[in-house]
Amino acid sequence: MNTLGKHFAIAALLVLSLAVLPALITERYLLGEVVVFMIWAVVAMHWNVLTGYAGVFSLGQMLFFACGAYAMAMLSHYYDVSPWVGMPIGGAVAAAVAFFIGLACLRLSTAYVALLTLAVAYMVYTLIITESGCISNEGGRCQRLFGGTTGFSRIEDFGFRPLLRGNWILGNYYVVLGAFAISISAALVIIHGRLGLAFRALDDSTAYAAARGLNRVRYRLIAFVVTAFFTGFIGAVQAIHFRSAGPSLFDFSTLLFVLSMVIVGGLRTTWGPVLGAALMMMLLEVGKSVGDIRNTLIGLSLVLVVVLMPGGLMGLIETLFGRLWTRSRKEG
Amino acid sequence: MKTKQSRNSVLSRRGFLRSAAAGGSGAAMLAGMNSQAAAQSSDPVVVGAPLPLTGAAAADGIEFRRGLEMAADEINAMGGILGRPIQLAFGDTESQGDDVISSAGRRLVDRENAAVLISGYNFGSNSALPQVAADAMIPYLHADTVIAHEALVQSEPETFWGSWMYDPSEAMYGIGYLDFLRNLEESGQFTPPNRKIAIITGPIAYSINIAEAIRDRAADYGYEVSLYETVQAPISEWGPTLAKIRADEPGMIAMTHLFTQDQAQFMLQFMENPTNSLIYMQYGASLAAFREITGDASEGVLYATVIGALQDEIGMIFAEGYKERFGETASPNAGGQTYSALYAYAMAASLAGGVGEPYEEMQNRAIVERLQGLIFRSPMGTIRFNPQTQSAYSYPSQTDDPSLGLPHIFSQIKDSAQDGVIIAPSPYDKAPFELPRWMKA
User: Do A242 and B147 touch (CB under 8 A)?
Assistant: First the structure.
């Protein structure tokens, strides 16, 4: 079995485990938290593809996530578009936005890409919250084109509430699981397929790779657009699950939270971000019963991981397994 | 003898009010129902409170928690809800968006088994917690003060039957402001130098909605909007805005942009060369920080709230008890909101024959029906719900009977060292309106 095949087997196992989880967990709140985990795991995994593998240090991932969520919300609000249609459109809108941002910034060096993507995200956020004109005024309620500071609510959901009533979250759970499976499969294909090979070649020696015909900017742009598509796609899924989308999606603490998943799990490791997402969600869950320590926990985790295990948890696991493997071979 | 009798009656009335605590009409009623009811069970009733305990709104969030703690202790001392003690469970919504708010609410329902959700206000789209309550089929009482709530429940009444806003929407601020001006004029307390109103608003929907309500209705009251300015936040340089005001002097300035620091800077810069204009400021001026920054320049400024502790007998007893328990810097205006909401819920649940558990739709609907018909005199005034909008009636904009609506109280800062004094509406006013010292009589 080749590397991609092995990773697909792991993915299948993970998805299968998540599929049987509702049989073991009956608490709706926990199922809801697993839904949130799957959403953030997709964002973290595609952020890792972009930053860890393609070498594009983007801080605009939450912009693409918000693009998907807003596209879904606006389609639902203005045109009654079904969520099933809105989800891929959300991804496509995020990809289109990423294409134009990428054209402008991917020729720049790492630090400037980070600054520019963050600046664009902040600019969009400011434009949304400072929008004051009303496109309609229903019952004294001003409707702004992009929702203003309130955002959009009452987005059409997947339709499980009338069908499953108290167990509606099960329906949502399996839809999100489907979106999770598709998105992580796409990440695996990128990392371990031809694109990933190109990224590795460009990372080993940009000049040599260029001499062999690899266009650095083109490949970076492809990574930027493809990862934005899946980030926007899962953003649309989140908007449908919560039936709302608003400017809080741009919140810096959310950006930091998702970034911490990537770093804690292990940048440039295939499964690190998923592990990081699970760990950070669990850590915050423990923190909720203690009090106001969310941001402290995130900051502390980041500092500890960066100082003690720069490769993240997955990096540490790989190192430990590597040593055990070498020792057992020597003894053998 | 007659005097003594009269004094006794006053004392006994005060005594009654004290013994009934400050829970208004609710305390006596609850105590009565508890004394007659056999305890249904000794299991506590979990009241879930998704509050902004950290982040930008934490100062109010902590007061909301205090208000609930005070009400819960008082109600438990009277026997709880039909013999069942109230147990509070808090969830931190972190002053964040819908995902965090929703998670906090779901945690309270599914993990803590909350029978009801009660909050002050939260941010986000104001639809996250109504959705949580709808999914769990439990009542949710909040004071988000947004017209978005009314639009939400009217669009899907069968989904959001459990969500009730125990104060009016922010649109009432706009209407109430115009009503207030008209009353000032008609009562001869104020003669505006001209009919112009300058409206200054900020980027937040709440501020914009109030500003638009004033702008859209000003002509109906015979006023003319001479300036409608939207400023960015935060803002400390008011020169350009003040230049426009000075170029076309309005008789009234309505500042609906609500950040305290920004309002204080406006006031300081305005007073360098004041125009002959009556100044109203939304929310920010009600905080002590505004008076501390502006000092004497704050005196004469007007502000309002659609839900605040009254300075009458019930309100003062509540405020005294609240400050005694939580300290002099505690804010009864914020704490009184959740305090009143918990009393209202406890009464409705008692009247409905008991508390419903999550997903017990029938019993929770019965509680909501009782809540809908409740006329509850709280320390903030009378909470009575409009069944269509599922929000509280505002007095005097929506009812001319002070016993049937939550008073939209207008206060004026008379002394920068003291809280503002209520000047309207009657009968809750404690002092007359005074022309600010920068204005010409």
Answer: no
One domain for residues A182 and A287 = no
Q: Do A142 and B205 touch (CB under 8 A)?
A: yes
Question: Of A250, A279, A309, which closes a domain?
Answer: A250
Q: How many CB atoms lie within 10 A of CB B294?
A: 23
- Asked if residue A54 lies in contact with residue A191, where contact means CB atoms within 8 angstroms, the answer is no
List, as one string, the DSSP characters of A126-161.
HHHHT----SEEETTEEE-TT-TTT-EE-----SHH
Omega cis (within 30) before B234: yes
Instruction: DSSP letter for A80, please.
Output: -
Q: CATH top-level class for B2-169+310-399? A: alpha beta
**Domain B171-305+408-424 is classified in which CATH homologous superfamily?**
Response regulator (3.40.50.2300)
Q: Is B171 on the interface with A (CB under 8 A)?
A: yes
pLDDT beyond 60 at B273: yes
| Cβ contact A149–B203 (<8 Å) | yes
- Residue A312, classified by CB atoms within 10 Å of its CB into exposed (0-12), middle (13-18) or buried (19+), is buried
Domain ranges, residue A301: 251-332
Q: Where in chain B is the domain with CATH 3.40.50.2300?
A: 2-169+310-399, 171-305+408-424
Nearest CA in chain A to B106: A29
The type of residue at B259 is F
Mean pLDDT across A88-108: 94
Q: What is the pLDDT of residue B12?
A: 47
Chain A hits for B230, CB-CB cut-off 8 Å, are: 130, 132
Tokens of B120: 């002050």
Which of B54, B92, B96, B125 would you mutate first to test chain A, the one with the most A CBs within 10 A? Answer: B125
Packing angle of the helix pair A272-288, A252-265 (nearest 10 deg):
120
Rounded to two decimals, what is the model's pTM?
0.81
User: So what's the pLDDT on residue B427?
Assistant: 94
Structure token pair of residue A272: 């690190």
Checking if the pLDDT of B13 tops 60, the result is: no
B 195-214 residues with CB < 8 A to A: 201, 203-206, 208-209, 212-213
- Give yes or no: residues A149 and A246 share one domain: yes
Q: Do A294 and B54 touch (CB under 8 A)?
A: yes
Same domain? A216 vs A326: no
Helices A216-242, B98-110: crossing angle, 10 deg rounding = 40
Whether A164 and A305 share a structural domain: no
> What is the reported pLDDT for B9?
40
Q: Answer with the residue of higher pLDDT: A175 or B102.
A: A175
Is B1 a residue whose pLDDT tops 50?
A: no
Whether the ipTM is more than 0.90: the answer is no
* Residues A72, A196 within the same domain: yes
Q: Per residue in A180-236, pLDDT tens?
A: 999 999 999 999 998 999 988 887 887 888 888 888 889 999 999 999 999 999 999
Measured at the alpha carbon of residue B347, what is the angle toward residues B343 and B353, in degrees to the nearest 5?
Answer: 145
Which residues of A are less than 8 Å from B110 in CB distance? Answer: 27-30, 32
Contact residues on chain B for A149, CB-CB shorter than 8 A? 203-206
Residues A215 and A308 in one domain: no
- DSSP 8-state class, residue A53: I
Task: For residue B203, give the nearest of A130, A138, A153 by CB distance.
Answer: A130
For B165-203, write each residue's pLDDT tens digit.
999 998 899 999 999 999 999 999 999 999 999 999 987
Nearest CA in chain A to B100: A248
Spatial contact of B346 and B30, defined as CB atoms under 8 Å apart: yes
Q: Point out the domain boundary residue: A250, A281, A308.
A: A250
Instruction: Please list every residue in chain A whose beta carbon sits closer than 8 Å to the beta carbon of residue B154.
Output: 139
The tally of domains found in chain A comes to 2
User: Which stretches of A25-60 are DSSP H helices?
Assistant: 28-48
Do the Cβ atoms of A137 and B208 come within 8 Å?
no
Are residues A165 and A312 part of one domain?
Answer: no
What is the average per-residue pLDDT within A155-174? Answer: 91
How near does any CA of chain B get to the CA of A115, in Å? 23
Whether residue A149 sits in one domain with residue A288: no
